[in-house]
Fold this protein.
Amino acid sequence: MKNDQERIALGRLALIRKLISLAHVYEHDKELFYKKFVETVDTSTLRKHEVIEMVGQDQNNLPTSSIEPKDVELFCLKEQGFTTEELCVIFGLKNPNSLYVKLHKLRKKLNQKVNGSASPVSLVLGVAFLLLISIIVHIIK
């Protein structure tokens, strides 16, 4: 158990170091930094470094056949507290309205209340990573 926790922590630390390195390398080119940052914080990389983990998709009777995997990830991250800004960065969306429309359609498909707190899928999040994304998003803006 301790070895798993250490492995996960080291993976998350490696990702944080990579993001810090990007900030250093591209400090004079804000647009290129942003592009590289967005490429680095996509959901597959976040799963690889075990910042997020999809759990129990089948157990929750999620109608995955009618919903794209990226949309499921988007919905779950929103339900777990990611902000609109953070989600736009992670999913490469330029317009927050696109995010609201996607979430509305997903809630409708999943028969969720607009302000419902229950999520059909659980995620395990790295708190330090959430803070780092928030800080970088606010610096970029």
Remarks:
- The chain is about 60% helix and 5% strand.
- The chain has a mean pLDDT of 75.
- The first strand starts at residue 54 and ends at 55.
- Residues 2-25 form the longest helix (24 residues).
